[in-house]
From TrEMBL, chain A:
It comes from Roseicyclus mahoneyensis. GO terms for molecular function: ATP binding; ATP hydrolysis activity. Keywords: ATP-binding, Nucleotide-binding, Transport. GO terms for biological process: peptide transport; transmembrane transport. The keyword Lipid biosynthesis does not apply. SUPFAM superfamilies: P-loop containing nucleoside triphosphate hydrolases (SSF52540). SMART domains: AAA. This is Peptide/nickel transport system ATP-binding protein. It comes from the Bacteria. Belongs to the ABC transporter superfamily.
UniProtKB/TrEMBL annotation, chain B:
GO terms for biological process: transmembrane transport. It comes from Roseicyclus mahoneyensis. The keyword Metal-binding does not apply. This is Peptide/nickel transport system permease protein. The lineage of its organism: Bacteria, Pseudomonadati, Pseudomonadota, Alphaproteobacteria, Rhodobacterales. Residues 94-311 form the ABC transmembrane type-1 domain. One of its GO terms (cellular component) is plasma membrane. It is found in: Cell membrane.
């Protein structure tokens, strides 16, 4: 008998004006010891299925059709009390962000003990012993001491282990993992996925693994269900669905996944359901100032820049503790190239970008732009240089001022530098919005009216407003779905090809870096360990750390190659 | 951690020095005390003698330094009007104000947090919405009006509670307390509600909005998914996370409960320092005004120092 069966599940969110159908007629079964992947883009209804099983749908959402059975018994109609007794005891859930899943004000031990005692009749000391045992089991060293620590004293990966320990408090039969590794580095991701695989294999736990990451699906799951806009479009054994997809949406979704093994000129776009919006960067080239330097000549020369932050406050300077974020990094970015910086979180990638942009003063070393010294001091960088460089940030939600209209946002850099005003400025803004594929009429709206991908287009339009020559892209697509990512990356490639822009491209996603960059620098603990041509780096990495990073990269060999040819 | 506390104390001392300067400056710039003290019939010699004996001929900063030194030793000067040491007068009056502030502060905190949690949990319920609507009255009505309305209803019409004074008090080691007699306790009810109503509604609204914010957090969702009881989620996980901003505001408000006791004390003829201050203003009794100013600032600074230390006690992230 299946552990968990979902039949014809329909979930609706009725609002005053209309009813939003989040999930429609979904089928899904989980057997003991099986990892069932649930994949799709944001808004596909994956997480809603998880919440429906847990009885944790946010109001006004409710199950309006179908049944959910646990060990053959229907649980979808249970009242709140009966559901609460099942929740955490028989069916557990793990959330995406380990930073926010734990209550910051209680120790890990307190949270474990309270959960254990909510489900099992144990005394305080027995519960504590069990808590220590659980922490040990999820692979956290020195469990006895760490049980008394607070969540902020754990690293991201360790926190996700704590979250898993919390989910295991009463030995559940089913675990629903909602994007459990999305917020983690590749090496940590591999460890957490191994932990989940171990649970399925050894304890016969049934797992629903919700993710948007095809690499995770390919590496971890036995069975996969692909969802699109609330409906299941395809389901079957993972190897079959990924290797020989039958539904057109699955095909285009798989085609849009950046490949680690082969470099394409442009990303294939998901064309299912007409969601591709065009853009016309080439048209901007007519009014773009001709670049002065020769293509391939050094544009930015960075020599031995360092940055350290105070990690321990003290009155006496000698007793202060410092954390060295960037340790004497040197590299050169050539005119017209895309230079990639890769590394795990905390390796100093973003700090370098901010020093180049003048957001952080440099603690040592020099930055030269076109031969002129532009090293950032506490007073920032020269104005002329500010116009030449622009940044695109990771989070398209927080990098746009929600109280400003889009045309004001895009116009601001040009107005600030006094480049244009009046009708000329309005024309520039309209043209930029049009060329990035939003249309000039987008200007009168506010940022919240746009999706993540559209907001990133606004960020790009804003970055182009001063007609810069150098763009710093700090994880520009990490927060986006793979189909949207493909569109944004294609825009960036056009910027390089048609406008001759030079770019510093920061990412932790190696396949994306291989597609985007001409040369790559690898960062580890603030040090630049290797710089090489992209193809050389991926084919013959020299430094052991680079080799280690590349070995963690999902190979995606099983993915269908169909659709890649359109590039 | 130690340097954090040290910095906070240093800042507090700085604030107190500045307030001390303002208080001291009052002596120099709000009328000439010699005129006030000697009256119409005076000679130039009298004036000179008094100026010399009061130290008024010394340079400004010497006078300020002496003033601070005396204040630190508890010598706040002599009241122009009563001719008694200011410290003694304040010591007489302070217990009344502190007891009133303590009762109304406790009332505001308990009711504010309780109602705040209630209105947040039952945010769509009828009673929660009714409380929210009523709380607008508490925020918008001025204190003296609330006091007068309460007096009219409970003292004049219903005749349940006294309309003025502290009732009987008992001396406990130099501290006159109203907590130990029935009439003293009864007399506290109306002034405490009057004084604490505004703070209560403020705390309630703050707790409610913070609570609603916290309830949207991932760790609350995860606490639900772990199968914890509603009670544990609301009162353990959610409430503790709302406390940091609530403590900030409460700290400031407690200070103002003491400072704004003036109005309530006037309405209820409450023999506290606020009433003393009002009388001092009427008679330009500058030593009393200066002492009151410094007393209030010491309390404000002290409370805020405690608030800063409480943050650290509540939030482990600030400890490292």
């Amino acid at each position: 008998m299946a552990l968990l069966e979902i039949e014809n599940l329909t979930v609706q969110f009725p609002t005053r004006r209309e009813t939003f159908v989040a999930v429609k007629d979904a089928h899904l079964t989980v057997e003991p010891g099986q990892i069932h992947g649930l994949v799709g883009e944001s808004g596909a209804g994956k997480s809603t299925i998880g919440a429906a099983v847990m009885g944790l749908l946010d109001p006004p959402g409710k199950i309006t059709g179908g049944v959910i059975r646990f060990r053959g018994e229907e649980i979808s109609g249970l009242d709140a009390e009966a559901m609460a007794s099942l929740r955490g005891r028989k069916i557990s859930m793990i959330f995406q962000d380990p930073l926010t899943s734990l209550n910051p004000l209680f120790t890990v031990g307190q949270q474990l003990v309270e959960t254990i005692r909510a489900h099992l009749h144990l005394s305080e000391t027995e519960a504590l012993a069990r808590a220590i045992n659980l922490i040990d089991r999820v692979g956290i060293p020195d469990a006895r001491a760490r049980v008394n620590q607070y969540p902020h004293q754990f690293s991201g990966g360790m926190r996700q282990r704590v979250v898993i320990a919390l989910a295991l408090c009463s030995e559940p039969d089913v675990i629903i993992a909602d994007e459990p590794t999305t917020a983690l580095d590749v090496s940590i991701q591999a460890q957490i996925l191994d932990l989940i695989k171990g649970l399925a294999r050894e304890r016969r736990v049934g797992v629903i693994l919700i993710t948007h990451d095809m690499g995770v699906i390919a590496d971890t799951t036995d069975v996969v269900t692909v969802m699109y806009r609330g409906e299941v479009v395809e389901s079957g054994p993972t190897a079959r669905v990924l290797g020989a997809p039958s539904h057109p949406y699955t095909k285009s979704l798989i085609a849009a996944v950046p490949r680690p093994t082969v470099k394409l000129h442009r990303f294939p776009l998901i064309d299912y359901g007409g969601r591709v919006t065009g853009f016309a960067i080439a048209d901007l080239a007519r009014n773009w100032p001709k670049s002065t330097g020769e293509r391939g000549a050094p544009l930015i020369e960075i020599e031995g820049i360092s940055k350290r932050f105070v990690s321990k406050q003290a009155i006496l300077p000698s007793r202060r503790g410092y954390f060295t974020a960037v340790d004497s990094a040197s590299f050169t970015i050539r005119q017209g190239e895309v230079f990639g910086l890769v590394g795990e979180s905390g390796s100093g990638k973003s700090t370098i970008a901010r020093m180049i942009a003048g957001l952080y003063p440099v603690d040592g070393g020099t930055v030269r732009y076109g031969g002129r010294d532009v090293t950032a001091t506490t007073r920032g960088v020269p104005d002329w240089y500010r116009r030449e460089i622009q940044m695109i940030f990771q989070d398209p939600y927080s990098s746009l001022n929600p109280r400003m209209r889009v045309d004001e946002i895009v116009a601001e850099p040009a107005r600030h530098h006094g480049l244009l005003k009046g009708q000329a400025l309005r024309n520039r803004v309209a043209e930029l919005l049009d060329r990035v594929g939003l249309g000039a009429e987008a200007g009168v709206k506010f940022p919240h009216e746009f999706s993540g991908g559209q907001r990133q287009r606004i960020s790009i339009a804003r970055a182009l407003a001063t007609q810069p020559r150098f763009l710093i892209c700090d994880e520009p697509t990490s927060a986006l779905d793979v189909s949207i990512q493909a569109q944004i990356l294609n825009i960036l490639k056009d910027l390089q090809d048609h406008l001759g822009l030079t770019m510093l491209f920061i990412s932790h996603d190696l396949p994306v870096v291989r597609q985007m960059c001409d040369r790559v620098g690898v960062m580890k603990d603030g040090k630049l360990v290797e710089v090489a041509e992209t193809e050389t780096l991926f084919e013959a990495p020299q430094h052991p750390y680079t080799q280690h990073l590349l070995s963690l990269m999902p190979r995606l060999d099983g993915l269908s190659d169909e659709g890649l040819a359109v590039a | 951690m130690v340097s954090y506390i040290f910095r906070r104390i240093l800042q507090s001392v700085l604030v107190l020095l500045v307030v001390g300067l303002v208080a001291f400056a009052m002596f120099r710039f709000v009328g000439d005390p010699v005129d006030t003290m000697l009256g119409q019939e005076r000679t130039v010699q009298d004036i000179e003698r008094l100026r010399e004996s009061l130290g008024l001929n010394d340079p400004f900063f010497v006078q300020y330094w002496n003033f601070l030194g005396r204040a630190l030793q508890g010598d706040l000067g002599i009241s122009y009007r009563q001719g008694r040491p200011v410290a003694e007068i304040i010591a007489e009056r302070l217990p009344a104000t502190l007891e009133l502030a303590a009762v109304s502060g406790t009332f505001a905190l308990l009711m504010g947090i309780g109602l705040g949690v209630f209105t947040a949990i039952r945010r769509h319920g009828f009673s929660a919405n009714a409380i929210m609507a009523l709380s607008l009255i508490g925020v918008s009505l001025p204190t003296f009006l609330i006091g007068i309305l309460l007096i009219y209803l409970f003292a004049v019409e219903l005749r349940w509670l006294p309309s003025f004074g502290r009732g009987e008090t008992v001396m406990v080691g130099g501290w006159s307390t109203g907590f130990l007699t029935q009439s003293g306790l009864i007399a506290l009810i109306l002034p405490s509600i009057t004084l604490g109503l505004y703070q209560m509604t403020l705390i309630m609204r703050l707790v409610r909005s913070e609570m609603l914010e916290v309830m949207r957090q991932d760790y609350i969702r995860f606490a639900r998914a772990r199968g914890l009881s509603q009670r544990a989620i609301h009162f353990r996980h959610a409430l503790k996370n709302t406390l940091v901003p609530v403590i900030t505001v409460t700290g400031l408000q407690l200070g103002s409960i003491i400072a704004f006791a003036i109005i309530t004390e006037t309405v209820f003829q409450w023999p506290g320092v606020g009433l003393l201050f009002i009388n001092a203003i009427q008679f330009v009794d500058i030593p009393v005004m200066a002492a009151y100013l410094m007393l209030i600032s010491v309390m404000f600074v002290g409370i805020n120092l405690i608030v800063d230390l409480l943050y650290v006690a509540i939030d482990p992230r600030l400890r490292s």
